[in-house]
């Protein structure tokens, strides 16, 4: 049975089963949907609320979060518009479900829209896990990401994301003030068990760090 309300994106919602844990915003890759990352979200952040929207762009019938002109060549005007739409959806979901600002957990196209949303609408996200992300905007906006935690996991033999591109994204986020952890894993574009282990450890550290803040905010 779905707990999801009718909001601007088709989505899945799973309520938190433990208090004080930041919610996750799950953002699937090309051709995925709102069900794809639920198992990863549950495994990496047990007890957290999960909000998982479906991308609104269709490429040959495959859902995505923004248009591209070719693989790795993005329609940046569309990215800006879609990042805005996604940030608006996050606001709606927070109001509808009573959530704190979520940490985005995105894979591939979902990681790219998460990076764009961080840079364009930083207030929408508390941080991000970017799996196999690349630079979404050739000229990044001036953003204040001070104190936002970001985990970027790249693949050493990723046939879609060149190593230089992933490092450039890490640099852009660091320049904006984010607290970036960037690791290059012995993997390709696909995810591995190592990703899950790294993500789960990082999320656990965010909970530990956030705990005193939630107590004092109560
Ligand atoms: C993108 O289009 O966002 C990236 O090329 C990753 C992909 O979805 O294949």
From TrEMBL:
A molecular function (GO) term: hydrolase activity
Alphabetic keyword roster: Hydrolase
Phospholipase/carboxylesterase/thioesterase domain span: 22-200
Entry protein name: Hydrolase
Superkingdom of the organism of origin: Bacteria
Entry-linked Pfam families: Abhydrolase_2 (PF02230)
Family: Belongs to the AB hydrolase superfamily. AB hydrolase 2 family.
